Amino acid sequence: MSGTDEAVSRAHRAEWARVVAALTRRFGDLDLAEEAAAEAFATAVQRWPEDGVPPNPGAWLTTTANRKAIDRIRRESKRDDKHREARMVYDRGAPEPLGAIDDDRLRLIFTCCHPALAPQARVALTLRMVGGLTVAEIARAFLVRETTLEQRITRAKAKIKAARIPYRVPSAGDLPARVGGVLAVLYLVFNEGYLATGPGTDPVRLDLTAEAIRLTRLIRVLLPDDGEVAGLLALMLLTEARRTARVSSGGELVSLAEQDRGSWDAALIAEGHRLVRERLAAAAAGTPPGRYQILAAINAVHTSARDVRDTDWSQILALYDRLVRLDPSPIVVLNRAVALAELDGPEVALAAVDRLEPRLDGYHAYHATRADLLRRLGRGRESRAAYDKAIALAGNTAETAYLTRRRDQLH
To answer: How far apart are CA 300 and CA 316, in angstroms?
Structure first.
């Protein structure tokens, strides 16, 4: 990849959401914003090799996208009043701040997560419009077909336009009811960055994890007393603290048990632990923890152990038992089985995992977990077959390398 190509790639990671959000604020049309942003990046691919990378790529892209948008409006308009409308939209001054925090991307998230949209559509639309993920990447995250995701996104944008859903951060009174959908989106954006599924992407995408953390911090400013906001932030921080230890110099995923714990980010762990302690105090006072708070507590137990042998698996299993009561999804049950194996042995855990097969057969982590449990039970041929399925389904290059090595070590 040339230096210019790398510059365009970096600009896409850093500026996509800003450009789309700025155009949405100006023109009030997600379709137009996305198309004009895409055209601006395509123009950068053509122009930057000849003209050089501009000093401020974000400003260049936003200006170019604005021009592309107004050109598209004029090109598609047939009547003079449409031309006048386009000129008014393009020439007007900066709009007044529309929310408690003056951040275009946060406004865009709340627009994409409006309750008028179906929950799955909210997540898919936000991953596309704010996270900048491709339809293929989102489809992998949802375990659905690309055409299904494309339809969800198209319908969601049409609904926003038809229902005139406003582009703003909700009022203080509406925030508590709206924040749950936003947290779900940010969690998925973070997860995509933490274990990127795109075959042509880095195995860990710092741009996505950093953006998810930044926006979660902003929401915490809006809702400082919301336990789930604090829980999600703690979960992200404790997970991000391990990022540099997760991939080896050779590009292979490093399991939690094998990571160099001395390389974990102590400052992020300290902040995450502080947030977890605050939520534990609230729980002791009678406020039951939600899903993100329990997940953060599980991560706090992991990051409190100086050595994997010091891990308090009984506490982790107890936390998973509590989480299953809140969220009995097959993926939560699968993760619980990992802790179960440490306490009751791989045979008991395998029986729990095998019951999930109809619902998780297309999920690579299900087969990877089975492969490991079968390996520990000495059932090499079955373990190899499970590794083969996991490798075929895994989209992350580092994870594929790890699974391949584990399979090849079998006798």
So the answer is: 10
Q: What is the pLDDT of residues 45-80, one digit of tens each?
A: 999 999 999 999 999 999 999 999 999 888 877 555
Q: Using an 8 Å Cβ cutoff, are 15 and 41 in contact? A: no
What six digits make up the tokens of 1?
């990849």
Alpha-carbon Rg for the chain, nearest whole angstrom, is: 23
Q: Round to whole Å and give the CA distance between 149 and 138.
A: 7
Strand partners, 247: 253
Q: What does CATH list as the number for 337-411? A: 1.25.40
Rounded Cα distance between 319 and 325, Å, is 10
CATH architecture of 1-93: Orthogonal Bundle (1.10)
Summarised one tens digit per residue, pLDDT across range 189-238 is: 898 888 766 656 677 777 788 888 988 998 898 788 899 999 999 999 99
- Separation between Cα atoms, residue 303 and residue 94, nearest integer Å: 46
Please give the structure tokens belonging to residue 156: 């969601």
| Calpha distance 13→17 (Å, rounded) | 8
The one-letter amino acid code at 274 reads R
Spans of the chain, pLDDT less than 70 = 1, 78-102, 141, 143, 196-201
Query: Where do the structural domains in the chain lie, given as residue ranges?
Result: 1-93, 104-224, 225-311, 337-411
Establish how many alpha carbons lie within 13 A of residue 313's alpha carbon, considering only the half-sphere containing its beta carbon.
16
CA atoms of 285 and 293, how far apart (whole Å)? 15
Long-range own/partner contacts, residues 59-63 (CB < 8 A, 24 or more apart):
61/11, 61/15, 61/19, 61/37, 62/15, 62/18, 62/19, 62/22, 62/23
Burial of 237 (0-12, 13-18, 19+ CB in 10 A): buried
C-beta atoms surrounding 63 within 10 Å: 15
